[in-house]
Amino acid sequence: xxxxxxxxxxxxxxxxxxxxxxxxxxxxxxxxxxxxxxxxxxxxxxxxxxxxxxxxxxxxxxxxxxxxxxxxxxxxxxxxxxxxxxxxxxxxxxxxxxxxxxxxxxxxxxxxxxxxxxxxxxxxxxxxxxxxxxxxxxxxxxxxxxxxxxxxxxxxxxxxxxxxxxxxxxxxxxxxxxxxxxxxxxxxxxxxxxxxxxxxxxxxxxxxxxxxxxxxxxxxxxxxxxxxxxxxxxxxxxxxxxxxxxxxxxxxxxxxxxxxxxxxxxxxxxxxxxxxxxxxxxxxxxxxxxxxx
Length: 293
Prior knowledge:
Elements: H1 14-27, E1 38-40, H2 44-53, E2 57-59, H3 61-72, H4 76-93, H5 96-109, H6 124-136, H7 138-146, H8 158-171, H9 175-180, H10 192-203, H11 212-228, H12 232-244, H13 258-271
Parallel strand pairs: 1-2
Helix pairs in contact: 1-2, 3-11, 4-6, 4-8, 5-7, 6-8, 8-11
């Protein structure tokens, strides 16, 4: 639920944002020591604001995954292939004749009548979709561009196609996670431990027959994510969230951490203010039913 949206005309410095967040909490008479976690983006001013407030916080997983994938694809071969991909997309975007010819060739080759996709720099998934669509339409693209001497030089080489296939193989399994773990209508923090476990043990593990570039991209992404979620404070927060989720409980918590997390959960529950029972006139208030946790 959105409790408050505030007009914020001041400079967006870390100090002023910190004060604004504290004022918002105070206006609802909410205590800072009861705040469980704050979700933030990766902006330096937000990082500084939450360092000043000393509030527990996590970066949005969608942003973190985007950064991990962009970091994982830092390679001159990838830069060249993505550059070629963008030029191909632009060639069709700015020419209705090429789009017309594309539709004819798609029908002849039995390919889906799909348009090419433009990358959005703030969404890693759009890059993956752009690459995936170009690979799908590779034959039609080569035929249309190759028929015009002015655009013949834009036809991707076999080396470019190999690199694009390596990229697609590495990151396509991750496209479902950005939206699933960036939802605003539900809490998703308890998913993080299971997802990171899945990435480490399945989706980003090297497979037989993969290119070295695919393996390198997977390794880079994993190393980035594991490093970002490796500090003890974050791990404790994620462990507690997993424990509270009946689907996961202690499944993804390290064996040597289980007892400590359980004790902390019990301590926090015992510290909650007890509800005062209200007896109706003429009735007796019996003991509250016991519940196990």
